[in-house]
Write a structure and sequence with these properties.
The structure holds two protein chains of two kinds. Chain A is α/β, with parallel strands linked by helices. Chain A contains nine helices and ten strands. Chain A has a six-stranded mixed sheet, sandwiched between helices. In chain A, strands 2-1-4-5 form a four-stranded antiparallel sheet, with helices on one face. Chain B has one domain: ABC transporter involved in vitamin B12 uptake, BtuC, CATH 1.10.3470. Chain B has 17 helices and six strands. In chain B, strands 1-6 form a two-stranded antiparallel ribbon. Classes of the chains: A alpha/beta, B mainly alpha.
Chain lengths: 251, 400
């Protein structure tokens, strides 16, 4: 029984069957990659996991609880954090503040009226955020305006914001999309480091095979909204079904 | 000090000093000089400065921090005024219960209006608040006449019960508003040489309330709550996926700023106990938006500066007329004098809106951060000059 169990999920947009009977099980403390060609339903599936979309049928269980019908912030409070395709950070705030906000969310829940005590008195939160930044080698940039960070650093910051919440499951939506090779390699190194150092389950949606094969313990191939195969990386490469889906070859 | 860091404490002290010494600062010209009409140090106007300052500070908590642009904040000001006047009619002429009631009622109004309006963001939110404010205005103007006294406005009468006070004073007139006996309209004049300074009890009550309001605003700005509000403005999507529910945060900010508006309305009625529907009109809502943007949205001191500036223009520029201009330009040859006056004419008197409009455009185009940004640029200019000078003197030394 995995930490995330997706069973019989269907999602239709008008005449388009975006997801058809998707079953997926992500085991704890593994990196599970979901790959597939454009339009395979990868992003739709992710959006069903985080509460942005609600599947027409089927169930999504996280840690024994259903996530369906819950709002994104509630799902995050259950222990799922997500990284966006283009880094989503609080651009008007400093780097340190960016990391402090998820700390508050973790400690105080979805809403707490703490309007009088100054932020500078929240020593524990500040320390925790700083430690996280040090972990990701960003401590020297803590007072920078986060909008002025480089793209790679923005990705790193977004990662810090997710990791500081100590999520049980981290969802990554094409973390290397649109990146140069060097940046991609940096991101791979960062993710490998995270995987080794922390007890964390990651679910990666990715286009780039290089990324997938260097990180994943388990791979699910989606095509036209349906899982084609689920297997270990070494078995995926030679699988004729996968080659067909990707390259359009006839077996 | 007061749980603030050094920079904020300095800011608070400077604002405190400026407001408490305002009767001097705003009256720089001798009473009988030609420039005396630029003096703004009379109680009525000074009260308006600080009351609209409170209104703008509160508005800035919503607009400056969360970025939600409300076009209906005058409704809360109006509601506050009506509540205060009813308190004067029914309970007593003491301003404390009146102000408390105006804050509470305005807060409740804001809760209802905010709950509905905050279901949408951006332009739709603005339109919803505008619609609510116009509905309130229409209600106050006609439908709810028994409560608001319609277009005449709500006034005190000799027949009012005033349970804890008297319906009429010994000499048969309507009692005046007071703070435990200190009458709001009482004032003392201080004459030093050709200068005359007026110290009004009402102004100082308003000024102290504004300082408290300003202090609370600083605390809110620097708190985790304030940080969340800034995060909402910056990236609401990220906030939702970070486990925070943005709705109660925005609603809390909306209610707080509505309560500030109610406080301003209550104070307004405490200084002059009448309330009219025109206080709720959309132009009044627009005015506070202008004040905040002119001064600098999202900054602490900006809204107060903006409020002061607009009220100064409204009261001082509107009083300049052609005769005054002829007086100033009397030294010019006749033809040129008339021409100059004719050119300036549209910008003064009733045309003060034109001057304000041009000024507003200039600020928005060249100083998007408002007057505060202007101040910062001037400061930077000076410090840079100083720095380059220091560099030069340092550079010279090794050569010697």
């Amino acid at each position: 029984m995995g930490i995330l169990e997706v069973k019989g999920v269907n999602k239709r947009f008008g005449g388009l069957q975006a997801l058809g009977d998707v079953n997926l099980s992500v085991a704890e403390n593994t990196v599970h990659a979901i790959i597939g060609p454009n339009g395979a339903g990868k992003s739709t599936l992710l959006n069903c996991l985080v509460g942005k979309l609600i599947p027409d049928t089927g169930s999504v269980m996280f840690n024994g609880q259903s996530v369906l019908g819950r709002k994104p912030f509630e799902i995050n409070q259950m222990g799922i954090s997500r990284v966006f395709q283009t880094p989503e950070i609080f651009g008007d705030l400093s780097v340190l503040e960016n990391v402090m906000i998820p700390c508050f969310a973790k400690r105080d829940g979805a809403f707490r009226m703490h309007a009088i005590e100054g932020v500078q008195n929240e020593k524990q939160i500040m320390e925790k955020a700083l430690l996280m930044l040090e972990d990701l080698n960003m401590a020297d940039k803590r007072n920078m305006h986060s909008a002025s960070l480089s793209r790679g650093d923005k990705r790193r910051l977004e990662m810090a914001m997710c990791l500081v919440q100590e999520p049980k499951l981290l969802l990554l939506d094409e973390p290397t999309a649109g990146m140069a090779r060097a940046d991609t390699n940096n991101t791979i190194d960062l993710l490998k480091e995270i995987k080794e150092k922390r007890d964390i389950t990651m679910c990666i949606i990715e286009h780039d095979m290089h990324v997938v094969f260097s990180l994943a313990d388990r791979i699910t191939v989606l095509a036209q909204g349906t899982p084609l195969v689920e297997d270990a990386p070494e078995n995926i490469k030679g699988n004729p079904k996968v080659r067909e889906a990707y390259l359009g070859e006839t077996a | 000090m007061f749980g603030l860091d050094k920079k904020d404490t300095t800011l608070l002290l400077v604002v405190a000093l400026l407001t408490l010494l305002a009767p001097f600062i705003l009256n720089p010209f001798p009473t009988d000089s030609g420039l005396a009409q630029f003096n703004a140090g009379y109680p009525d106007l000074m009260q308006r400065f600080v009351i609209f300052g409170i209104f703008a500070i509160g508005f800035n908590i919503l607009f400056g921090l969360t970025g939600y642009l409300s076009f209906g904040h005058a409704a809360f000001l109006g509601v506050g005024s009506y509540s205060a006047v009813w308190m004067f009619k029914l309970l007593s002429m003491n301003i404390i219960p009146a102000i408390v009631l105006s804050v509470v009622i305005a807060g409740l109004f804001a809760l209802v209006i905010g709950y509905v309006s905050l279901r949408r963001s951006g332009i739709y939110f603005s339109i919803l608040t505008l619609a609510f404010a116009q509905m309130s205005f229409a209600l106050a103007y006609s439908v709810l006449t028994p409560i608001t006294n319609g277009e005449t406005g709500l006034q005190l009468t000799l027949e009012d019960p005033r349970i804890l006070g008297t319906s009429a004073t010994a000499d048969g007139s309507i009692p005046v508003t007071n703070l435990f006996g200190l009458e709001m309209r009482s004032a003392t004049d201080l004459v030093i040489g050709p200068w005359s300074f007026t110290f009004s009890a009402g102004y100082y009550v308003c000024a102290i309330v504004m300082l408290v309001a300003f202090y609370l605003a600083i605390r809110i700005f620097r708190s985790p709550f304030g940080m969340m509000l800034r995060a909402i403005k910056s990236n609401q999507n990220r906030l939702n996926y970070t486990g925070l529910n943005s709705r109660p945060y925005t609603l809390a900010a909306f209610v707080i700023s509505g309560m500030y508006a109610g406080l301003a309305g209550g104070l307004m009625a405490s200084m002059d106990p009448l309330a009219g529907a025109e206080r709720m009109q959309w132009t009044a809502s627009g005015e506070v938006v202008l004040m905040t943007i002119l001064g600098g949205a999202g900054t602490l001191i900006g809204p107060v500066l903006g409020a002061g500036m607009i009220k100064y223009f409204e009261n001082i520029f509107s009083k300049i007329n052609d005769n005054v201009l002829h007086g100033w330009f009397a030294w010019m040859p006749d033809g040129i004098e008339d021409l100059t006056v004719a050119i300036i004419h549209p910008f003064i008197g009733k045309g003060w809106h034109l001057t304000l409009g041009i000024l507003f455009m200039l600020v928005v185009i060249f100083l998007p951060g408002g007057l505060v940004e202007g101040g910062q640029r001037i400061m930077r200019l000076f410090s840079r000059k100083k720095a380059t000078k220091d560099d030069k003197s340092k550079a010279k030394q090794p050569a010697e």
